[in-house]
Amino acid sequence: MSSAVADPTLAARFEATVAAKERIEPRDWMPDAYRKTLIRQVAQHAHSEIIGMQPEGNWIGRAPSLRRKAILLAKVQDEAGHGLYLYSAAETLGASRQELTDLLISGAQKYSSIFNYPTLTYADVGTIGWLVDGAAICNQVPLCRTSFGPYGRAMIRICKEESFHQRQGYELLMTMMRGTDAQRAMVQESVNRFWWPALMMFGPPDDASPNTEQSMAWGIKTHTNDELRQRFVDMSIPQAKALGVTLPDPDLKWNEHRQSHDFGEIDWDEFRAVVKGDGPCNAQRIAHRRKARDEGAWVREAATAFASKQKELTR
Ligand SMILES: [Fe+2]
Ligand SMILES: [Fe+2]
Protein backbone atom coordinates (compact mmCIF):
# COMPACT_ATOMS: atom_id res chain seq x y z
CA MET A 1 0.00 0.00 0.00
CA SER A 2 2.92 2.33 0.56
CA SER A 3 3.88 4.72 -2.16
CA ALA A 4 7.34 5.40 -0.72
CA VAL A 5 9.14 3.51 -3.47
CA ALA A 6 6.59 4.08 -6.16
CA ASP A 7 7.00 2.27 -9.42
CA PRO A 8 7.12 5.12 -11.97
CA THR A 9 4.69 3.31 -14.27
CA LEU A 10 2.15 3.09 -11.43
CA ALA A 11 2.54 6.76 -10.60
CA ALA A 12 2.18 7.66 -14.27
CA ARG A 13 -0.92 5.51 -14.56
CA PHE A 14 -2.43 7.24 -11.52
CA GLU A 15 -1.71 10.69 -12.98
CA ALA A 16 -3.14 9.70 -16.36
CA THR A 17 -6.31 8.27 -14.81
CA VAL A 18 -6.92 11.43 -12.79
CA ALA A 19 -6.12 13.68 -15.76
CA ALA A 20 -8.61 11.74 -17.95
CA LYS A 21 -11.24 12.21 -15.21
CA GLU A 22 -11.54 8.45 -14.88
CA ARG A 23 -11.78 6.66 -11.58
CA ILE A 24 -9.22 5.39 -9.14
CA GLU A 25 -10.39 2.11 -7.58
CA PRO A 26 -9.35 0.68 -4.18
CA ARG A 27 -6.84 -1.81 -5.61
CA ASP A 28 -5.16 0.75 -7.85
CA TRP A 29 -1.91 2.29 -6.75
CA MET A 30 -2.36 5.79 -5.31
CA PRO A 31 -0.03 8.27 -3.60
CA ASP A 32 -0.14 8.12 0.21
CA ALA A 33 -1.13 11.78 0.38
CA TYR A 34 -4.11 11.11 -1.93
CA ARG A 35 -5.22 8.23 0.29
CA LYS A 36 -4.79 10.33 3.44
CA THR A 37 -6.69 13.30 2.04
CA LEU A 38 -9.53 11.06 0.94
CA ILE A 39 -9.75 9.25 4.26
CA ARG A 40 -9.93 12.60 6.03
CA GLN A 41 -12.61 13.95 3.68
CA VAL A 42 -14.75 10.80 3.51
CA ALA A 43 -14.52 10.33 7.30
CA GLN A 44 -15.50 13.94 7.94
CA HIS A 45 -18.43 13.46 5.60
CA ALA A 46 -19.48 10.19 7.27
CA HIS A 47 -19.23 11.77 10.73
CA SER A 48 -21.40 14.68 9.56
CA GLU A 49 -24.15 12.30 8.48
CA ILE A 50 -24.09 10.49 11.81
CA ILE A 51 -23.80 13.55 14.08
CA GLY A 52 -26.36 15.28 11.86
CA MET A 53 -28.97 12.78 13.04
CA GLN A 54 -28.97 14.39 16.49
CA PRO A 55 -30.41 17.89 15.96
CA GLU A 56 -33.38 16.55 14.00
CA GLY A 57 -33.71 13.31 15.93
CA ASN A 58 -34.40 15.62 18.84
CA TRP A 59 -37.83 16.40 17.28
CA ILE A 60 -39.02 12.90 16.35
CA GLY A 61 -40.92 12.47 19.60
CA ARG A 62 -42.45 15.93 19.32
CA ALA A 63 -43.40 16.11 15.64
CA PRO A 64 -46.99 17.40 15.53
CA SER A 65 -48.68 14.51 13.68
CA LEU A 66 -48.17 10.86 12.82
CA ARG A 67 -47.46 11.84 9.21
CA ARG A 68 -44.79 14.37 10.22
CA LYS A 69 -43.28 11.88 12.63
CA ALA A 70 -43.04 9.21 9.92
CA ILE A 71 -41.42 11.66 7.49
CA LEU A 72 -38.85 12.83 10.03
CA LEU A 73 -38.09 9.30 11.17
CA ALA A 74 -37.45 8.23 7.56
CA LYS A 75 -35.25 11.26 6.93
CA VAL A 76 -33.09 10.71 10.00
CA GLN A 77 -32.80 7.04 9.09
CA ASP A 78 -31.59 8.00 5.61
CA GLU A 79 -28.79 9.99 7.24
CA ALA A 80 -27.70 6.88 9.14
CA GLY A 81 -27.59 5.05 5.81
CA HIS A 82 -25.44 7.81 4.28
CA GLY A 83 -23.02 7.49 7.17
CA LEU A 84 -22.76 3.76 6.58
CA TYR A 85 -22.10 4.01 2.83
CA LEU A 86 -19.39 6.53 3.54
CA TYR A 87 -17.72 4.52 6.31
CA SER A 88 -17.73 1.61 3.84
CA ALA A 89 -16.06 3.80 1.21
CA ALA A 90 -13.42 4.80 3.79
CA GLU A 91 -12.92 1.12 4.62
CA THR A 92 -11.82 0.46 1.00
CA LEU A 93 -8.99 2.93 1.71
CA GLY A 94 -7.90 0.95 4.75
CA ALA A 95 -9.57 2.91 7.58
CA SER A 96 -12.03 0.96 9.70
CA ARG A 97 -15.29 2.39 10.95
CA GLN A 98 -14.29 1.74 14.54
CA GLU A 99 -11.00 3.55 14.15
CA LEU A 100 -12.73 6.54 12.52
CA THR A 101 -15.41 6.65 15.21
CA ASP A 102 -12.69 6.76 17.87
CA LEU A 103 -11.04 9.67 16.04
CA LEU A 104 -14.38 11.49 15.96
CA ILE A 105 -15.03 10.98 19.65
CA SER A 106 -11.52 12.02 20.65
CA GLY A 107 -11.92 15.22 18.60
CA ALA A 108 -9.09 14.30 16.20
CA GLN A 109 -11.51 14.32 13.25
CA LYS A 110 -14.21 16.90 12.55
CA TYR A 111 -17.76 16.96 11.24
CA SER A 112 -19.74 19.76 9.63
CA SER A 113 -19.90 22.87 11.82
CA ILE A 114 -23.65 23.23 11.19
CA PHE A 115 -24.57 20.35 13.50
CA ASN A 116 -23.22 22.22 16.52
CA TYR A 117 -26.21 24.56 16.44
CA PRO A 118 -29.32 23.64 18.44
CA THR A 119 -32.80 22.93 17.05
CA LEU A 120 -34.94 25.23 19.20
CA THR A 121 -38.30 24.97 17.42
CA TYR A 122 -40.10 22.50 15.19
CA ALA A 123 -39.65 24.92 12.26
CA ASP A 124 -35.93 24.07 12.47
CA VAL A 125 -36.77 20.65 11.01
CA GLY A 126 -38.06 22.38 7.88
CA THR A 127 -35.22 24.90 7.76
CA ILE A 128 -32.59 22.18 8.08
CA GLY A 129 -34.18 20.28 5.20
CA TRP A 130 -34.39 23.39 3.04
CA LEU A 131 -31.08 25.11 3.82
CA VAL A 132 -28.78 22.48 5.35
CA ASP A 133 -29.68 19.60 3.04
CA GLY A 134 -29.81 22.21 0.25
CA ALA A 135 -26.24 23.31 0.99
CA ALA A 136 -25.21 19.66 1.25
CA ILE A 137 -26.59 19.05 -2.25
CA CYS A 138 -24.58 21.96 -3.69
CA ASN A 139 -21.48 20.49 -2.10
CA GLN A 140 -22.19 16.90 -2.99
CA VAL A 141 -23.56 16.84 -6.53
CA PRO A 142 -20.09 17.64 -7.94
CA LEU A 143 -18.68 14.85 -5.74
CA CYS A 144 -20.62 12.27 -7.77
CA ARG A 145 -17.77 12.76 -10.26
CA THR A 146 -14.96 12.67 -7.74
CA SER A 147 -11.90 10.64 -8.74
CA PHE A 148 -12.18 7.86 -6.14
CA GLY A 149 -14.72 5.27 -7.35
CA PRO A 150 -16.38 4.10 -4.11
CA TYR A 151 -16.83 7.68 -2.89
CA GLY A 152 -18.33 8.90 -6.17
CA ARG A 153 -20.73 5.96 -6.37
CA ALA A 154 -21.87 6.45 -2.77
CA MET A 155 -22.54 10.11 -3.56
CA ILE A 156 -24.90 9.27 -6.42
CA ARG A 157 -27.28 7.44 -4.13
CA ILE A 158 -26.83 9.97 -1.32
CA CYS A 159 -27.61 12.94 -3.56
CA LYS A 160 -30.89 11.40 -4.68
CA GLU A 161 -31.95 11.12 -1.06
CA GLU A 162 -30.64 14.58 -0.15
CA SER A 163 -32.77 16.17 -2.83
CA PHE A 164 -35.80 14.44 -1.32
CA HIS A 165 -34.74 15.78 2.10
CA GLN A 166 -34.53 19.29 0.76
CA ARG A 167 -38.02 19.08 -0.70
CA GLN A 168 -39.54 17.68 2.48
CA GLY A 169 -38.05 20.59 4.44
CA TYR A 170 -39.33 23.12 1.95
CA GLU A 171 -42.78 21.53 1.92
CA LEU A 172 -42.93 21.65 5.72
CA LEU A 173 -42.01 25.36 5.72
CA MET A 174 -44.56 26.04 2.94
CA THR A 175 -47.26 24.40 5.05
CA MET A 176 -46.32 26.46 8.11
CA MET A 177 -46.29 29.67 6.03
CA ARG A 178 -49.89 28.96 5.03
CA GLY A 179 -50.80 28.60 8.71
CA THR A 180 -51.11 31.14 11.51
CA ASP A 181 -49.10 34.30 12.16
CA ALA A 182 -47.34 32.49 15.00
CA GLN A 183 -46.28 29.72 12.61
CA ARG A 184 -45.00 32.22 10.04
CA ALA A 185 -43.04 34.00 12.75
CA MET A 186 -41.58 30.67 13.85
CA VAL A 187 -40.37 29.95 10.31
CA GLN A 188 -38.82 33.40 9.94
CA GLU A 189 -37.03 33.15 13.28
CA SER A 190 -35.65 29.74 12.34
CA VAL A 191 -34.41 30.97 8.93
CA ASN A 192 -32.75 33.93 10.67
CA ARG A 193 -30.77 31.53 12.88
CA PHE A 194 -29.76 29.04 10.18
CA TRP A 195 -28.93 31.25 7.19
CA TRP A 196 -25.41 32.27 8.16
CA PRO A 197 -24.36 28.89 9.62
CA ALA A 198 -25.61 27.32 6.34
CA LEU A 199 -23.25 29.60 4.36
CA MET A 200 -20.40 28.50 6.63
CA MET A 201 -21.01 24.86 5.61
CA PHE A 202 -18.99 25.48 2.44
CA GLY A 203 -15.88 25.98 4.54
CA PRO A 204 -13.37 28.84 4.71
CA PRO A 205 -12.98 31.29 1.83
CA ASP A 206 -10.77 30.12 -1.03
CA ASP A 207 -7.79 32.25 -0.01
CA ALA A 208 -7.84 30.56 3.43
CA SER A 209 -8.39 27.00 2.18
CA PRO A 210 -4.90 25.53 1.77
CA ASN A 211 -5.98 22.02 0.66
CA THR A 212 -8.29 23.08 -2.15
CA GLU A 213 -5.67 23.37 -4.88
CA GLN A 214 -4.20 19.88 -4.37
CA SER A 215 -7.65 18.33 -3.97
CA MET A 216 -8.74 19.87 -7.26
CA ALA A 217 -5.61 18.65 -9.03
CA TRP A 218 -6.43 15.12 -7.83
CA GLY A 219 -10.05 15.38 -8.91
CA ILE A 220 -11.22 14.90 -5.32
CA LYS A 221 -12.78 18.35 -5.36
CA THR A 222 -14.16 19.86 -8.56
CA HIS A 223 -15.25 23.34 -7.38
CA THR A 224 -13.89 25.77 -4.79
CA ASN A 225 -15.69 26.63 -1.53
CA ASP A 226 -16.56 30.13 -2.71
CA GLU A 227 -17.95 28.90 -6.05
CA LEU A 228 -20.28 26.48 -4.30
CA ARG A 229 -21.30 29.05 -1.69
CA GLN A 230 -22.24 31.51 -4.46
CA ARG A 231 -24.25 28.84 -6.23
CA PHE A 232 -26.15 28.16 -2.99
CA VAL A 233 -26.91 31.85 -2.39
CA ASP A 234 -28.19 32.30 -5.94
CA MET A 235 -30.32 29.20 -5.66
CA SER A 236 -31.81 30.11 -2.25
CA ILE A 237 -32.97 33.65 -2.97
CA PRO A 238 -35.86 32.80 -5.32
CA GLN A 239 -36.83 29.93 -2.98
CA ALA A 240 -36.99 32.36 -0.02
CA LYS A 241 -39.15 34.69 -2.08
CA ALA A 242 -41.56 31.90 -3.04
CA LEU A 243 -41.75 30.90 0.59
CA GLY A 244 -42.38 34.45 1.78
CA VAL A 245 -39.44 34.74 4.18
CA THR A 246 -36.60 37.24 4.22
CA LEU A 247 -32.93 36.26 4.51
CA PRO A 248 -31.10 38.04 7.37
CA ASP A 249 -28.55 39.89 5.24
CA PRO A 250 -29.07 43.57 4.36
CA ASP A 251 -26.25 43.36 1.80
CA LEU A 252 -27.93 40.74 -0.39
CA LYS A 253 -28.49 42.18 -3.84
CA TRP A 254 -28.33 41.25 -7.49
CA ASN A 255 -25.08 42.16 -9.20
CA GLU A 256 -25.80 42.71 -12.89
CA HIS A 257 -22.13 42.69 -13.81
CA ARG A 258 -21.38 39.33 -12.14
CA GLN A 259 -24.83 37.88 -12.93
CA SER A 260 -24.90 36.70 -9.31
CA HIS A 261 -25.98 37.98 -5.93
CA ASP A 262 -23.64 39.91 -3.69
CA PHE A 263 -23.90 39.06 -0.01
CA GLY A 264 -22.56 40.28 3.33
CA GLU A 265 -19.43 39.28 5.20
CA ILE A 266 -19.55 35.92 6.99
CA ASP A 267 -18.51 35.95 10.65
CA TRP A 268 -15.40 33.81 10.26
CA ASP A 269 -14.54 34.20 13.97
CA GLU A 270 -17.75 32.37 14.80
CA PHE A 271 -16.94 29.69 12.22
CA ARG A 272 -13.46 29.10 13.63
CA ALA A 273 -14.80 28.96 17.20
CA VAL A 274 -17.41 26.35 16.25
CA VAL A 275 -14.89 24.25 14.31
CA LYS A 276 -12.49 24.45 17.26
CA GLY A 277 -15.13 22.98 19.56
CA ASP A 278 -16.68 26.08 21.09
CA GLY A 279 -20.04 26.04 19.28
CA PRO A 280 -23.27 25.91 21.27
CA CYS A 281 -23.65 22.09 21.08
CA ASN A 282 -20.20 20.58 20.34
CA ALA A 283 -19.77 18.96 23.76
CA GLN A 284 -23.34 17.64 23.80
CA ARG A 285 -23.05 16.10 20.30
CA ILE A 286 -19.84 14.24 21.13
CA ALA A 287 -21.05 13.13 24.57
CA HIS A 288 -24.18 11.69 22.95
CA ARG A 289 -22.15 9.88 20.28
CA ARG A 290 -19.80 8.47 22.92
CA LYS A 291 -22.71 7.19 24.98
CA ALA A 292 -24.25 5.52 21.93
CA ARG A 293 -20.93 3.85 21.08
CA ASP A 294 -20.44 2.60 24.65
CA GLU A 295 -24.00 1.36 25.03
CA GLY A 296 -23.80 -0.45 21.70
CA ALA A 297 -20.52 -2.23 22.49
CA TRP A 298 -22.23 -5.47 23.51
CA VAL A 299 -24.18 -5.59 20.24
CA ARG A 300 -20.99 -5.26 18.19
CA GLU A 301 -19.27 -7.90 20.32
CA ALA A 302 -22.18 -10.31 19.91
CA ALA A 303 -22.33 -9.72 16.14
CA THR A 304 -18.58 -10.29 15.80
CA ALA A 305 -18.74 -13.49 17.87
CA PHE A 306 -21.68 -14.73 15.81
CA ALA A 307 -19.90 -13.99 12.53
CA SER A 308 -16.75 -15.88 13.53
CA LYS A 309 -18.86 -18.82 14.73
CA GLN A 310 -20.63 -18.91 11.35
CA LYS A 311 -17.31 -18.83 9.58
CA GLU A 312 -16.10 -21.81 11.61
CA LEU A 313 -19.27 -23.77 10.85
CA THR A 314 -19.05 -23.20 7.11
CA ARG A 315 -15.34 -24.01 6.93
FE1 LIG B 1 -27.26 12.83 4.30
FE1 LIG C 1 -30.00 14.80 4.28
UniProtKB/TrEMBL annotation:
<dbReference type="InterPro" id="IPR011881">
    <property type="entry name" value="PaaA"/>
</dbReference>
<protein>
    <submittedName>
        <fullName>1,2-phenylacetyl-CoA epoxidase subunit A</fullName>
        <ecNumber>1.14.13.149</ecNumber>
    </submittedName>
</protein>
<dbReference type="InterPro" id="IPR012347">
    <property type="entry name" value="Ferritin-like"/>
</dbReference>
<dbReference type="InterPro" id="IPR007814">
    <property type="entry name" value="PaaA_PaaC"/>
</dbReference>
<dbReference type="InterPro" id="IPR052703">
    <property type="entry name" value="Aromatic_CoA_ox/epox"/>
</dbReference>
<dbReference type="InterPro" id="IPR009078">
    <property type="entry name" value="Ferritin-like_SF"/>
</dbReference>
<dbReference type="Pfam" id="PF05138">
    <property type="entry name" value="PaaA_PaaC"/>
</dbReference>
<dbReference type="GO" id="GO:0097266">
    <property type="term" value="F:phenylacetyl-CoA 1,2-epoxidase activity"/>
</dbReference>
<keyword id="KW-0560">Oxidoreductase</keyword>
